Amino acid sequence: MKSTHSQKGMSILSWLMVLAFIAFFASAVFKMLPHYLDYMSLEKIITSVETDASKDIRSVGAFYGHVGKGMQVNAIRDLNLQEALKIKIESNEFRVHLKYEKREPLIQNIDLVVRFDKEFRVRMP
Asked: What is the reported pLDDT for 107?
């Protein structure tokens, strides 16, 4: 009867292992979350060209200016816009290719890497 009573629950070592795994994954999530939020902000900025008729964006330079201002408003500072964003005009629409990669150090020489690569077709207002 005593043996079944002593086997209830997890040991302290098991709880420490569980807490270590939770801390590891929480650390990884908290390091990557800002990059995903920046990417979602960039998507909204790019697609807002189509819906915002008050801005007369008809050239590639004006498009870069619009995205640059949106990046300033959303405090996205660690991204080179000229390298990450490629814009072409084809048949009355912008073809926008957003492609960049971000790295965050995790443990010594182990990095977390996220790669964003998406193409947009945005009609001119």
From this structure: 87
Nearest CA to 67 out of 33, 96, 26, 34 is that of: 96
Domain span at residue 98 reads 32-123
Is 6 a domain residue? Answer: no
Task: Enter the DSSP assignment of 9.
Answer: S
C-alpha span between 37 and 39 (Å, rounded)? 5
Task: Answer whether residue 58 is part of any domain.
Answer: yes
Maximum distance among all Cα pairs of the chain, rounded to whole angstroms: 82
Can you give 16-78 as a three-state secondary structure string?
HHHHHHHHHHHHHHHHHHHHHHHHHHHHHHHHHHHHCCCCCCCCHHHHHHHHHHHHHHCCCCC
Which H or E run contains 81?
helix 81-84
pLDDT band at 5 (very low <50, low <70, confident <90, very high): low
How many domains, the chain?
1
